[in-house]
Amino acid sequence: MIDPKKIEQIARQVHESMPKGIREFGDDVEKKVRQVLQSQLTRLDLVSREEFDVQTQVLLRTREKLALLEQRLSELESRSVQAPDVAPPTEPQM
Q1: What pathway annotation does it carry (predicted)?
Q2: CA–CA distances in Å: residue 60 to residues 29, 40, 46
C-alpha cells in the first residue's frame, strides 16, 4: 500500500506546480489531484518496500539451496560415471 503521506506530498507538489490561475481554484484542485493519484497508484500492482525486501531474502535463500543441489547433483553424476557397470541385484525367485 502506498503511504498516504507520500500521496499528500505529491498532490501538494503537483498543485503548487500548476499555473496560478488553476491554483486559485483552491482545495478542490488539490483534492482532485489527490484522488486521481490514489486511484492510479491503486491500479498499479505495487508492493511495499518491506514485502519487496522479504521476497528478495526468500529468493536469495532459494538460489543458495539451488546452487547446493546443483553441486550435489554434479557430484552424484560424476560418481555414477566413475563407477563400474554393475548390474542391479536381482530379487530371489520363488
Answers
A1: Cofactor biosynthesis; ubiquinone biosynthesis
A2: 45, 32, 21
The pTM assigned to this predicted structure is 0.46
* Average of per-residue pLDDT across 82-86: 65
- The DSSP result for 23-52, as a single string, is HTTTHHHHHHHHHHHHHHHHHS----HHHH
CA distance 38 to 6: 10
Q: Which three cell numbers stand for residue 74?
A: 554434479
Q: Are 15 and 23 in contact (CB under 8 A)?
A: yes
Three-class SS state of 16? helix
Q: What are phi and psi for residue 28, nearest 5 degrees? A: -60, -45
